[in-house]
Amino acid sequence: MFHGSMVALVTPMRADESLDYEALERLIEYHIEQSSDALVVVGTTGESATLDMEEHCEVIRKSVDYARGRIPIIAGTGSNSTREAIDLTGSAMQSGADACLLVTPYYNKPTQEGLYQHHRAIAEAVAIPQILYNVPGRTAVDMKTETVERLSTIPNIIGIKEATGDLTRLRDLRECCGDRLDLYSGDDATTLEFILQGGKGTISVTANVAPRAMHEMCIAALKGDRATAAAINARLQGLHEVLFVEANPIPVKWALHEMGLIPPGLRLPMTRLSERYHDTVRQAMKQAGVL
Fold first, then answer.
1. Is 270 within a domain?
2. What does the pLDDT profile of the chain (291 residues) look like in tens digits?
3. Which of 66, 106, 116, 133 is the catalytic position?
4. Does any domain span residue 72?
5. Is residue 132 included in any domain, yes or no?
6. In Å, how far are 6, 49, 188, 198, 244 from 11, measured between CA atoms?
């Protein structure tokens, strides 16, 4: 349903931590101009953990309004509370989002049966297309392949963002789910191989900073053109690494501010990028041709 480079979009904030909707609109225009294939708003990179419910829903609504149908808007609506996830997902559907991304419940560490029941309940409550999101490094719970297989039979669960970086997981998911689910990389460093081995695209942090290059790399990989995709990816490899020298989205928001695209704000407990990493990130940006 969605293919290519999908940007895990930051949420612009001023230095006082207030949301900057004018900067959000400019950022969406920038990604449309740069040929990004979709925008994922208010996910992990969008600081969903520290936006309140009203802000969360408003960022989704305004993103849909600003996009005006020119680029798909996928709303991050996951929560470790099933009821809250249903409310957020319902609000996103009412706002006109094209799909929702639902992270596995974090901190409370449900069983595999709990994960199944959680995602099934949301899918049955809200008819919007839904993408599962497995990122055990953040959530402390890993959604196993057999659980994904069970969920893949639910009609409006259409894909999974797999952020383990383990390409054997991709193979296992393809074998058990077939064409029922689209598989998306959630790990920029392994995205090239992920797509060449059957993935449909990526939900990317790097694409915030180098959107056109990520789009072109993904398109080449989807066509099976390894040489072209690898040449583009070589320029981006530094960004794939340095955008995680501190917790996401600290480095990527610093980079975007350095590019003049957003103000400098993050919301506590996130803090600005440590000065010792500034030159490291700048060098990767220069290598990628974005600075």
1. no
2. 899 999 999 999 999 999 999 999 999 999 999 999 999 999 999 999 999 999 999 999 999 999 999 999 999 999 999 999 999 999 999 999 999 999 999 999 999 999 999 999 999 999 999 999 999 999 999 999 999 999 999 999 999 999 999 999 999 999 999 999 999 999 999 999 999 999 999 999 999 999 999 999 999 999 999 999 999 999 999 999 999 999 999 999 999 999 999 999 999 999 999 999 999 999 999 999 998
3. 133
4. yes
5. yes
6. 15, 12, 19, 30, 17
Closest CA to 63 of 73, 55, 54, 53: 73
Euclidean distance between CA atoms 237 and 145, whole angstroms: 28
Contact 249, 222 (CB under 8 A): no
The answer to whether residue 251 sits within a structural domain is no
Structural domains counted in the chain: 1
CATH (domain of 9): 3.20.20.70
* Active-site entry in 66, 106, 116, 161: 161
Q: Is residue 223 flagged as an active site residue?
A: no
Among residues 161, 251, 143, the alpha carbon closest in space to that of 203 is found at 161
Q: Which residues pair with 161 in a beta bridge?
A: 133, 184
161: annotated active-site residue: yes
Cα first-last separation, the chain: 33
The conformation of residue 23, written as its DSSP 8-state character, comes to H
* CA-wise closest residue to 289 among 217, 225, 226, 223: 217
